[in-house]
Design a protein that fits this description.
The complex is a heterotrimer of chains A (125), B (574) and C (489). Chain A has 125 residues and is mainly α. Chain A is built from three helices and one strand, in the order H-H-H-E. Chain A folds into two domains: 48 residues, no CATH class; 68 residues. Chain A is 42% helix and 2% strand. Helices cover 72% and strands 3% of the residues of chain B. Chain B has 574 residues and is mainly alpha-helical. In chain C, 78% of the residues lie in helices and 2% in strands. A two-stranded antiparallel sheet of chain C has the order 1-2. In chain C, helix 4 runs parallel beside helix 10 and helix 14 packs antiparallel against helix 17. Classes of the chains: A mainly alpha (125), B mainly alpha (574), C mainly alpha (489).
Chain lengths: 125, 574, 489
């Protein structure tokens, strides 16, 4: 990708609020990228978005935990008839447990894979 | 008015004489001659027309042509082909809308020929027609990669082309051997019965990205253009799934192959940095489900496969579109560079979340389709496969869906401030999202299109709650790993995959062999090598315009030759 | 009327030629010649219909029965050749004598020579009398020398001169062969010869007659060691003439070889007793490779095409040397297919010569952007030369390979495929020059005029169309071969 010279079509950004310009790359048919000052001003500064507040993040996590507990609770109190092809599918919280453990395992294995297979970004160049 | 009507009627009749897909292929040839809005309208009209033409065909339609002594079945219109045709046309329409602003004539034509040839391949009733369409998809689609116009894409495209054409060559070789063995060119159920069908199986396997044959996919798709990847993600691999379902349904070896395919790409997806490549790994993982479904081969499993193809083409297209929009606006899709884009691109964020959810969440396409394959595995008592697919469901949702949304749109704000995606991209993504949700909420329509009758009920309380448990706890695991600092950071990197074999090991072996060869040549074969180069230079010398054979001889020489030939003829007869 | 078609087929062009000399008016002559070629095309198609219905259409001049009178006999094989010759003439003649040495206002000379050459070739193909063959061959050859000498380069005269000498030797050899046959049988009629030769076949005179006739025809056909006249003649002739000759002259010679071997002498005698294939097979294979290799190293586009023609003639004679119905059919169908491809390519060379002023390959740099329509025509016809599926080249290769496999000749199959790779190399060289190198500084970006482009594209598109519709080519060729081999017993 070729770097354009001066950023003629660069969006107007407010650097004081941590805003950055997107890298100018040569993409076919790219047009109308200029961001007006008004548009830029409407976008919250870095660190000020709703999803960036630690308190909000905690809220989300607690909400997630609550929903998770509720879904297993449904099993625990037999709120519905649980059925599956295999017996183990009907254990309380089987899918919850299986999902959690699978994901953790996948990540831990993948981290090991990284040791073997990760190379510099321009390895093949 | 009547004249206009007659013209339309005539056009319709003409179109009816063409097998589906041909309208797009032939229409694509006109694209370079058009400009501006006319071209945009024409490019959109072609797949729409093609869709109407296909819908007008009654089930069981046939069309054939004679090529040499062979009867080619250009059209076989049954319910399985119809389902693939329908989703391919829809994907083509959405992708064309997405690519509306792309003014490259080459890319436009290539994309239409590519889509059209994939559609005609689905309707091919014999192996020769299939082969022709197969190679056409390969040759046309490579331009979507080369259109990126950088060195990396050029080389990647060349590797892609070699693999794809290689698959076609295997298909042709297998077809010829199969024909010699059985005398049949029909593309019906083949089964792994001989050497010929074995070659065909490998040819399909390459396109379906079987483990160790897969890497062209992750290599090429992230190097295609913004719009090109969207086209690519829809057709090539799903065409291979179609071919497997048609030719090798119930071939048991496919079940372990598919199970491995469903899991191993996830590991790579977790640590890959380029988000379009993450999606390519995800594509590979979902193909694993389809291959398992084909391998099980019961009516229920095949229904599940077809249904999952339909849902998958749409939501994977949506995910590639949203990452394409990010690339278009920001200029990169490296997870290590991105974050916080929800502030700048809220609509894209929302649509991407719909696409990610569609991998398996209730009320989306993935929920009603993928669960059919998982249930089919359980019904046929493939316990290990069932557990593997369940694991892959959790993993895929998390690392292909959540990861992509999280790192692109949330996570740490890197400060990029860009515009929302262009309107045409938003329309295409909106259409795809609506389809995802529509399929998920009203699965009856999808089920009605499947090749066999369906009596599967996806929405039972038990099913919804268990899947929710699986998905919610996957997300919880993600949150836990992030909080505990166990989640691997996104790093700019290249991951070694099976492509390392041909990009590094083979060159090394080659260099090694060349070295050994040169040593051997220097030691003992020096004279032989000298002879070879002497032969080559002699060949050139005598064939050059000033050489003996490249230069017209004097008349006398010809006369002499005439005498020699006369003499030889006389000598022979005595 | 239609019963006189065989006579009209030849008389029309041969009689119009002197008429052109009398009329002299450029436009009038041009229109008249065009009308004659188109008329001949119609007649040849009608004859093809008749021949396919009745087997052999026999036309006796003045109602004198054979062997006294001269008769024209049209079966599927020569009807096919007649169609090829008149089709190519009708397509290329509209371009006329541009790019040649013909002075303004003297075009009638070109047209009358062209019509004589055309009529002579038709005559060779249609007649059922061996002496008549010699006469028509001389008519067409003499006209050909004139046409070649019209090339705008002075080297054209030298090329014409050396072709004249070699061609005359060939004609003389043929005449000696015919004379010896006449001496043994007392007849010149082909059908009659075949019958009367049965008794005297094993005599030395007939063997010598055969040897002389074959060498004579081989010169006209440019079989490998006797090919030297061809590259110069095709390179220096005006483009239309190169296109016409490459597509027709060697084809008619090939037809003669078929006729002598299968109808007059009989395949059993030629291949089993005389073992002609022992000579013809290696020569064909050598032609395939030497022709293609020489084409690879040429620096001039037209000369490259000429050498490629030598290789293609190798394919045709290879089909013949397989001595089977399939092999003969492969040769016959390649007559048609090669005429389309090579005719188209020489017309492309005409376009290049017109706009670039030279056909040197270095001067064709960047042609893909300078003359996109011309360059793409070259690419499509070039794909045909390689034998890519969907082109006529593939149909020919397919027919030839299946004929070779039918004879269990694996090694020949492999060699055919290898030589196709050589075609890939020389076509790729052209593509590389046209599309992957920059145009020279100050090069004109100007497409050839429609007058050139339309005939070129007709041939190129036909080469794609007949790559798919094989019934009217391969089907007819198989029927022709069947009739030829069946009839000769």
């Amino acid at each position: 990708m070729s770097e354009e010279g001066p950023l003629s079509e660069a969006p107007e950004v407010d650097e004081a609020r941590g805003h950055r310009q997107a890298p100018q790359v040569d993409l076919h048919g790219r047009e109308g990228h200029t961001l007006s000052a008004a548009e830029s001003a409407r976008i919250p500064a870095v660190g000020e978005g709703w999803f960036e507040q630690p308190s909000n993040i905690n809220k989300i996590i607690w909400a997630l935990v609550a929903v998770c507990v509720a879904s297993v609770g449904a099993d625990l109190f037999s709120l519905y008839h649980k059925h599956g092809h295999y017996g183990f599918q009907e254990w309380i919280g089987f899918d919850a447990f299986y999902g959690f453990v699978s994901c953790v395992l996948l990540v831990l294995v993948a981290k090991q894979l990284r040791k073997v297979s990760m190379r510099d970004e321009n390895y093949y160049d | 008015m009547t004249e206009g009507a007659a013209l339309i009627d005539g056009g319709a009749r003409l179109a009816a004489m063409l097998p589906p897909g041909w309208i797009m292929m032939l229409g694509a040839l006109v694209v370079p001659l058009l400009r501006g809005p006319v071209r945009q309208g024409w490019m959109l009209a072609l797949p729409v027309l093609g869709l109407f033409q296909m819908l007008a065909l009654p089930l069981g339609s046939e069309m054939s042509a004679t090529f040499f002594a062979y009867e080619l079945e250009l059209l076989r219109f049954d319910s399985i082909a119809r389902a693939f045709g329908l989703v391919f046309h829809s994907a083509a329409i959405l992708s064309v809308v997405y690519a509306m602003k792309n003014d490259s004539a080459l890319e436009g034509s290539a994309a239409l020929v590519y889509s059209g040839s994939a559609i005609s391949a689905v309707f091919a009733g014999d192996l020769i027609t299939l082969f022709i369409c197969w190679e056409l998809t390969a040759v046309s689609s490579v331009f979507l990669i080369w259109a990126s116009g950088n060195e990396r894409a050029n080389r990647s495209g060349m590797r892609y082309l070699i693999v794809q054409v290689g698959s076609g060559v295997l298909l042709l070789a297998g077809t010829i051997i199969h024909y010699a063995e059985t005398g049949s060119l029909a593309f019906d159920h083949l089964g792994l019965v001989g050497f010929g069908t074995g070659l065909i199986f490998v040819a399909f396997g390459i396109k379906a990205a079987f483990p160790f044959l897969h890497n062209w996919l992750q290599d090429a798709y992230p190097n295609a253009t913004v719009t090109g990847t969207v086209f690519l993600s829809a057709f090539t691999t799903k065409l291979a799934i179609y071919a497997l379902a048609r030719g090798f349904a119930g071939t048991e070896i496919l079940i372990p192959i598919g199970a491995v395919m469903a899991v191993f790409p996830i590991f790579y997806a977790v640590i890959e940095n380029d988000l379009r490549r993450v999606l390519a790994y995800g594509l590979n993982n979902q193909l694993g489900y389809m291959v398992v479904g084909v391998g099980i081969g019961t009516e229920f499993a095949l229904n599940g496969t077809v249904a999952h193809v339909v849902a998958h083409v749409i939501y994977k297209g949506l995910l590639f579109m949203s990452m394409g929009a990010v690339l278009y606006r920001v200029g990169t899709v490296k997870a290590s560079e991105l974050g916080g884009l929800y502030k700048s691109m809220p609509i894209t964020t929302l649509l991407c979340i719909v696409g990610a959810a569609s991998i398996s969440a209730p009320l989306t396409g993935g929920f009603v389709s993928k669960s059919m394959i998982v249930s089919a595995a359980a019904e046929e008592h493939y316990t290990v496969v069932f557990l593997v697919l369940l694991l892959a469901s959790a993993g895929a949702f998390l690392y292909l869906g959540i990861k992509v949304c999280f790192f692109a749109f949330f996570g740490q704000d890197r400060g990029f401030r860009v515009k929302e995606a262009p309107l045409n991209m938003l329309i295409a993504m909106g259409g795809a999202a609506a389809l995802c949700l529509g399929i998920g909420m009203f699965p009856g329509t999808l089920y009605g299109l499947l090749p066999y009758p369906v009596d599967y009920v996806p929405y039972t309380v038990s099913h919804v709650v268990t899947i929710l448990q699986l998905l919610l706890f996957s997300v919880l695991a993600f949150a836990f790993l992030r909080k505990a600092g166990l989640y691997p950071p996104e790093l700019r990197s290249t991951l070694l995959d099976s492509d390392w074999i041909y990009r590094r090991m083979l060159p090394w072996i080659n260099d090694g062999l060349a070295f050994a060869y040169n040593r051997a040549v220097d030691r003992g074969l020096g004279p032989a090598r000298g002879l070879l180069s002497q032969v080559m230079s002699t060949v050139e010398r005598i064939h050059r315009p000033d050489g003996v054979l490249g230069n017209p001889w004097p008349t006398g020489a010809t006369t002499l030759w005439a005498a020699i030939m006369l003499f030889a003829l006389l000598l022979l007869s005595y | 009327m239609s019963e006189h078609f065989p006579a009209l087929q030849v008389l029309l062009p041969v009689l119009t030629a002197p008429l052109c000399l009398l009329l002299r008016h450029p436009t009038l002559v041009r229109v008249l010649s065009l009308a004659v070629t188109v008329g001949c095309l119609g007649i040849s198609l009608a004859l093809m219909e008749q021949a396919r219905e009745v087997g052999t259409v026999v036309y006796e001049f003045g109602n004198w029965p054979r062997p006294l009178g001269i008769e024209y006999a049209v079966d599927t094989t020569n009807a096919f050749v007649l169609v090829i010759v008149s089709m190519i003439a009708a397509v290329v003649l509209p371009i006329g004598c541009r790019n040649s040495q013909v002075p303004e206002g003297r075009e009638y000379l070109f047209y009358s020579a062209f019509l004589l050459c055309f009529g002579g070739l038709l005559g060779v193909a249609i007649t059922g009398d061996v002496f008549n063959i010699f006469v028509f061959l001389e008519i067409s050859s003499l006209a050909t020398y004139i046409l070649i000498a019209m090339g705008r380069d002075r080297r054209a005269i030298m090329a014409a001169y050396s072709y004249l000498i070699v061609g005359t030797i060939g004609a003389t050899f043929l005449l000696i062969g015919i004379g010896l046959l006449y001496q043994m049988t007392g007849t010149l009629n082909i059908a009659d010869l075949a019958v009367r030769l049965e008794d005297v076949k094993e005599t030395r005179t007939v063997i010598v007659a055969f040897a002389f006739a074959m060498v004579g025809i081989s010169i006209k056909l440019a079989v490998l060691p006797l090919h030297h006249w061809l590259p110069n003649a095709y390179t220096h002739a005006p483009p239309v003439v190169s296109a016409f000759l490459s597509a027709t002259a060697t084809k008619v010679a090939y037809y003669l070889m078929l006729r002598f071997i299968y109808t007059i002498l009989g395949a059993g005698f030629v291949f089993d007793v005389l073992q002609f294939d022992v000579i013809l097979t290696p020569l064909s294979l050598a032609a395939m490779f030497i022709g293609s290799l020489a084409a690879i190293y040429q620096t001039d586009f037209k000369r490259l095409l000429a050498y490629s023609s030598i290789a293609q003639i190798g394919y045709m004679t290879l089909g013949l040397s397989l001595n089977s119905e399939l092999g003969a059919a492969a040769g016959i169908v390649h007559l048609f297919n090669h005429a389309l491809m090579k005719g188209g390519l020489f017309l492309v060379a005409g376009c290049v010569l017109l706009r670039v002023g030279s056909t040197a390959i270095v001067d064709m740099r960047g042609l893909g952007s300078r003359m996109p329509l011309t360059a793409s025509a070259l690419v499509i016809a070039g794909l045909g030369m390689i034998g890519v599926p969907g082109t006529v080249g593939f149909v020919s290769k397919w027919a030839l390979v299946s004929a070779a496999l039918d004879q269990q000749a694996w090694q020949i199959t492999v060699l055919i495929l290898l030589s196709s790779l050589l075609a890939l190399v020389y076509v790729w060289r052209l593509i590389e020059v046209m599309y992957l190198t920059e145009a020279p500084e100050g090069a004109e970006r100007r497409e050839a005029p429609p007058l050139y482009l339309i005939p070129t594209w007709i041939l190129v598109l036909a080469s794609v169309y007949f790559g798919f519709n094989t019934e009217s080519t391969l089907g007819v060729a198989r029927a022709a071969a069947h009739q030829l081999l069946g009839g000769a017993g």
